[in-house]
Design goal:
single chain, about 650 residues, alpha/beta, 3-stranded antiparallel sheet, 28 helices, about 5% strand
Length: about 650
């Protein structure tokens, strides 16, 4: 479908900009260092946001130039996208499936097969939104990074047509409309964040569109070549600084995207608009041969690095050294060079007809679909493993633990709100007294053990991700506030506060965390119960069933100890706060020799991932916690008798 000529003031010729390739290089490096946990680039995920701005800028330049010259064809546009994106993507997906067949459990392999099909169809952002949840962070997803390709290609289904249609109304109307759409998208993203719909804000194309639309807007701005070189240099340097600031200070557990994404997006926009002079600091950073070359191969680098890092980390049991991860990034860049030279460039330059391109595209996708379908139909090809290996592989299936945690019931799921808590049912039909567990999933995983250990009634008021402190998010805030209604109704004798304290202490800082925990302790004390604060329970770098499957020496009789993470500082802070409020503190690490904790008994793991407990683990820790609660209540009773 060829479009007609639109009379508009020309944007000017599309000239190659080495500095934009240099910006691509910095963006892809920030993503690589973030995923490899190197050089303290804790917010390197913003590199993807920079890519969105660059993409919107370049695509708009191309579409508008072709439209103004009467050469724009939607078929030609999609053909170019197919040539640009699909060949390298299909090769990477195919080899990821081959590598996964040697490593992954049947359930994991089946999941990767589904995600490979979604990636090939540019819908992996929707797939990962549907399948992802709180526990999903522990799953292996070597194609997770393809979500950004899904967002881009879904955006470009409609955007070129919108550009062409709006162009007939003139430049001003075009820019104003795109700016309004960008603002609406950003507002909608912020509303989603405020409603705790973080996955939606992250994965949905209409909530990410504003980033691409910022790129589109700056593509239609007049040239700033007449601005003094020193000001252009400062503006471009400020843009790089904003991107670097976000890359080095943002954290994975912060609220993102939404308004937080404005900083890197604004940085990218400043850099592109105020094209830095050929001489100066910025030019030295982004126009050197290494930066420009890395920018040219950045797409292939992005494709290769994530499955390599994820599968290697899986094989190394999450215990890779920085040197190993750096070597894996070097391997990714080497494969990207080969991919660029022998896949990307040849396919881009092939003088194929559109019919032939279409045939090759459909053939590649059908080939992947056939391979993925065979994996799914065979339930992940379990014949690859021995019976013993399969037993441990099946232990990684999180669904079997949700029932014993009462997830979706008195342990609120990620999609449930405080008002979904069934007070009558969760109180045991109005039973008073007993023990009430308050916290997140690390509290809920002790519920089955304490229920079997204690003779008193044990109830839980727990929710995924919601520590028993005021977290202010729209979902966890009401959960905290409603605790009073629960405590007032149940009138528990003992309230136990437990949570995954480590991440919140890191996020909030020591002073704020202590104050929030102090408020929560006094909140619980106000209902006349004995309050016990549990410390951070042991966590590991690797899922224990995965460890036993890959390392047979853990499948033995008796107790097997394993070095747990060092949470001593976290527990010191929690214990100090508990002591200051005159309540009891229980240290789960008191059951360990230093940080060497019992992880297996007779081959049965105590955790099904890196921290959440199996029934065996819950009973092990609940026995000690239950005995501690009994001692505390006896001590309180004797004190009352005096």
């Amino acid at each position: 479908m060829k479009m007609h000529t639109i009379n508009m003031k020309p944007l000017g010729p599309i000239s190659y900009r080495a500095d934009v390739d240099g910006l691509r290089a910095f963006s892809v490096l920030s993503v690589l260092f973030y995923h490899a946990n190197l050089f303290g680039v804790t917010g390197g995920f913003v590199g993807v946001d920079v890519f969105f701005v660059i993409s919107g800028f370049l695509i708009t330049k191309i579409v508008m130039s072709e439209t103004e010259n009467g050469h724009f064809s939607i078929r030609a546009f999609y053909e170019r996208r197919a040539r640009r994106i699909l060949p390298a993507l299909i090769v990477v997906i195919f080899l990821t499936l081959i590598a996964s067949s040697f490593l992954l459990t049947p359930n994991e392999f089946e999941s990767v097969a589904w995600s490979s099909l979604a990636a090939a169809l540019f819908s992996s952002n929707i797939y990962f939104w549907v399948t992802g949840d709180y526990f999903g962070a522990h799953e292996i997803r070597p194609l997770l990074h393809t979500w950004s390709l899904g967002v881009e290609e879904q955006f470009y289904i409609f955007f070129p047509l919108l550009l062409f249609w709006l162009a007939r109304y003139g430049r001003r109307a075009l820019i104003c409309t795109i700016v309004v759409l960008a603002i609406l998208s950003l507002v909608a993203s912020n509303i989603s964040m405020n409603k705790d719909l973080i996955s939606e804000a992250f994965f949905f194309p209409h909530l990410r569109a504003w980033e691409l639309l910022v790129g589109a807007t700056i593509a239609m701005l007049p040239s700033v070549s007449n601005v003094r070189a020193v000001f252009r240099e400062l503006a471009a340097l400020t843009g790089l600084g904003l991107i670097a600031l976000a890359s080095l200070t943002y954290q994975a557990d912060m609220d993102f995207p939404g308004a937080s994404a404005i900083v890197p997006v604004l940085g990218a926009a400043l850099f592109i608009v105020f094209e830095a002079p050929n001489r100066g600091i910025v030019s030295l950073l982004v126009r050197n041969k290494i930066s420009v070359w890395l920018g040219k191969i950045s797409y292939s680098v992005y494709l290769w690095h994530y499955p390599i890092l994820v599968l290697a980390d899986y094989y190394l049991l999450g215990d890779s050294a920085p040197e190993q991860r750096a070597a894996l990034l070097a391997l990714s860049i080497f494969l990207a060079v080969l991919s660029y030279l022998f896949i990307e460039e040849p396919f881009r330059r092939l003088r194929w007809s559109r019919r032939r391109v279409r045939f090759a595209t459909i053939t590649g996708i059908l080939g992947l679909a056939s391979m993925s379908g065979a994996i799914v139909v065979s339930d992940g090809m379990p014949a690859r493993f021995s019976e013993d290996e399969l037993r441990y592989a099946n232990m990684l299936d999180k669904e079997q633990y949700f029932e014993i945690y009462d997830r979706g019931g008195c342990f609120l799921d990620s999609h449930q709100r405080a008002e979904d808590y069934d007070l009558l049912n969760c109180s045991g039909g109005g039973v008073k007294g007993g023990v009430l567990i308050w916290g997140d999933s690390f509290a809920a995983n002790l519920y089955p053990g304490l229920s079997q250990t204690l003779s008193e009634p044990v109830r839980q008021y727990t929710a995924t991700s919601c520590r028993p402190i005021d977290q202010t998010q729209s979902r966890c805030g009401p959960f905290f506030e409603n605790f009073g209604l629960v405590a007032e109704s149940m009138e528990p004798d003992v309230i136990i506060l437990i949570g995954f304290w480590s991440s919140r202490l890191q996020q909030l800082g020591e002073a704020v965390f202590e104050e929030k925990l102090r408020v929560a302790i006094n909140y619980a004390k106000s209902y006349g119960a004995i309050v016990v604060v549990g410390g951070q329970s042991p966590t590991y770098k690797v899922a224990l069933p995965h460890l036993a499957r890959l390392r047979p020496d853990y499948r033995v009789d008796g107790n097997v100890e394993l070095e747990a993470r060092n949470h001593s500082h976290v527990n010191e802070v929690v214990e100090r706060t508990a002591a200051a409020e005159d309540v009891e503190f229980f240290d789960f690490y008191s059951l360990c020799e230093g940080f060497a904790c019992i992880a297996f008994v007779d081959g049965e793991p105590f955790h099904w991932d890196g921290g959440h407990m199996t029934l065996s683990g819950s009973l092990h820790y609940a026995n000690a916690l239950g005995a501690f609660v009994y001692e505390v209540t006896e001590k309180a009773a004797k004190g009352a008798d005096r």
